[in-house]
Design brief:
Blueprint (H helix, E strand, L loop, with lengths): L7 H4 L11 H6 L20 H19 L1 H7 L4 H6 L5 H8 L24 H13 L6 H30 L7 H5 L2 H6 L5 H16 L3 H12 L9 H11 L2 H25 L1 H4 L1 H8 L7 H9 L5 H25 L6 H15 L8 H11 L3 H26 L8 H27 L61 H8 L1
Helix pairs in contact: 3-8, 6-8, 7-8, 8-11, 11-12, 11-20, 12-14, 13-14, 13-18, 13-19, 17-22, 18-19, 19-20, 19-22, 21-22
Protein name: Glycosyltransferase 87 family protein
Keywords: Cell membrane, Membrane, Transferase, Transmembrane, Transmembrane helix
Organism: Streptomyces solicathayae
Length: 508
């Protein structure tokens, strides 16, 4: 059903209350007084759902900063092992000196000392790092300046974290509370200040919000800026191409593609022209980088004792990524109902992470907002987060083991197990999302008859190109189910949504 033909009843449906639909959310809410009551009215006072999500995200970010206190006080500056045993490592203070910011060098233009000739980060991230160095107080005490540089960056990243949480909370109009999945994610708190990934994550979340509002050009501009900060956001254009192809929305995809290319060029072209050698360092570094931490490639090299050359790893990583993309394309074009944008976005970024030759612990931030939009179920989300937290601890304990003379920490076999946990946790979340696509009646977001709340012009659009069983009239994805899906024998509220609290009351 086209979005302009939606009934008033669909448009006026109340905000979805997770504590009345999700057993884990309902159980967790006991800490703050229990599930929301049937007659509760939210959003009338100062604490709207979006504001609550933002405040919780800020609080979790602050807890993550507290977790870094041992390093801030001394562990960053008194040898490598201590920052690993306390699991509080951050690239930020080390790169303040190692990439020339402490000496006033200009990224991409000034050559660095040592093996790293130029800054190996994309241009927008380099600008973020440079602005933080401008705001860092000067002085002769280098240790104090490193501390202040981390604090300045943390303040700027806090803004990114709040933007990310707010955008996720607003993307699904009826599901703002899903933003709590992002705000309360343990891996978010632990990894937020390891590196500068939150800049790209916030821009990507803002782009998803713009697309959900039907603003294709703004989406493209934000994706272009995000890609200028980190490479992965450009991958979202692939799923968007497939969905727009299936729905015949070529004009909107063209606007998004034009905006992305234009924004990326505006940021990159000046540096590309004036400092071409420094500009391309990020791309050459990614190609020349050896197999590194967190990847299944590392497990292979450690188990076999045979190194994998960067060229070989690059080739096979590209082949595996292309195969994964082909599978996602087949899924998008043959699913019984057109997949939601967030579902395919999560799958393609997860595929990139799983096939890449390195997985830094902060890369989990790329997936957290997409997971909250693609599969807003607390049980599955927390299973995945538990795996990521175990990996977060595993890599630091492994580095403590390899850098300490007394071999205290996690040995190689233990670290390989941590990598497997990360891989299996991500694959698990991919599997349940694929199941939701193949069995749309099990998709919690679509339970009330919604189509794609984050899909913008795709939401409720007719399909014009389908293949396989999706082309069968009885299962045509264009005809979104009007009205709620009723599960007989299960207590439901006035909108036909599963009522967890009602089930409890019935049992009592």
């Amino acid at each position: 059903m086209p979005s302009h033909q939606k009934t008033r009843a669909q448009q006026d449906r109340p905000v979805v209350q997770p504590t009345r639909q999700d057993e884990v959310a309902a159980a967790g809410s006991e800490l703050i007084g229990g599930p929301i009551g049937r007659w509760a009215r939210l959003g009338d006072g100062p604490l709207t759902p979006v504001r609550v999500v933002a405040l919780v995200a800020i609080g979790m970010f602050a807890l993550g900063m507290v977790q870094k206190i041992p390093c801030y006080d001394w562990a960053w500056f008194r040898g490598a092992t201590s920052q690993y045993t306390h699991a509080c490592y951050s690239d930020i203070p080390h790169l303040f000196v190692g990439r020339g910011f402490a000496d006033g060098l200009i990224p991409y233009f000034d050559r660095l000392d040592g093996d790293m000739e130029y800054l190996e980060y994309p241009v927008l991230t380099g600008l973020f790092m440079e602005v933080a160095s401008w705001l860092t107080p000067g002085g002769d005490d280098l240790m104090h300046r490193e501390q202040m540089y981390w604090m300045v960056n943390a303040a700027m990243l806090l803004i990114c974290a709040a933007v990310m949480a707010v955008c996720v909370a607003r993307t699904h109009r009826r599901r703002p509370w899903d933003g709590l999945l992002v705000a309360l994610a343990p891996a978010f708190a632990l990894t937020a200040t390891i590196n500068w990934d939150l800049l790209a994550v916030a821009l990507t979340a803002a782009a998803m919000l713009m697309w959900s509002r039907g603003r294709a050009l703004a989406f493209g501009i934000l994706i272009g800026l995000a890609t200028a900060a980190k490479l992965y956001p450009v991958l979202l254009l692939g799923p968007l191409l497939l969905l727009c192809w299936r729905a015949g929305k070529w004009r909107e995809f063209g606007a998004a593609l034009l905006g992305a290319a234009g924004a990326w060029l505006v940021v990159n072209l000046p540096v590309m022209v004036l400092a071409p050698v420094g500009w391309k360092k990020f791309y050459t570094f990614s190609q020349e980088r050896n197999v590194d931490f967190g990847s299944f490639w590392l497990i292979i090299t450690q188990r076999t004792g045979e190194p994998i050359e960067p060229e070989t790893a690059n080739t096979w990583a590209i082949v595996l990524m292309l195969l994964a993309c082909a599978g996602i394309a087949a899924l998008a074009l043959t699913a019984p109902r057109r997949p939601r944008f967030a579902q395919l976005a999560f799958l393609v970024v997860a595929a990139f992470i799983l096939t890449n030759k390195v997985y830094s612990p902060q890369y989990v931030l790329w997936l957290i907002p997409l997971a909250a939009l693609a599969r807003p179920r607390w049980r599955d989300f927390l299973i995945w987060q538990a795996c990521e937290v175990m990996y977060f601890l595993g890599i630091w304990l492994y580095l403590a083991y390899t850098t300490s003379g007394n071999k205290q920490g996690l040995p190689t076999e233990g670290y390989q197990f941590a990598i497997l946990l990360h891989l299996l946790g991500t694959l698990f979340l991919c599997a349940v999302i694929v199941r939701d696509i193949l069995m749309p009646e099990r998709d919690g977001v679509r339970r009330d008859g919604s189509d794609d709340p984050s899909g913008g012009v795709l939401d409720g659009a007719e399909d014009v190109f389908v293949r396989g069983r999706a082309a069968h009239p009885a299962r045509h994805a264009a005809h979104a189910v009007e009205g709620p899906r009723v599960e007989w024998g299960v207590p439901q509220d006035e909108w036909g949504e599963r009522d967890v609290q009602g089930e409890r009351e019935a049992r009592d």
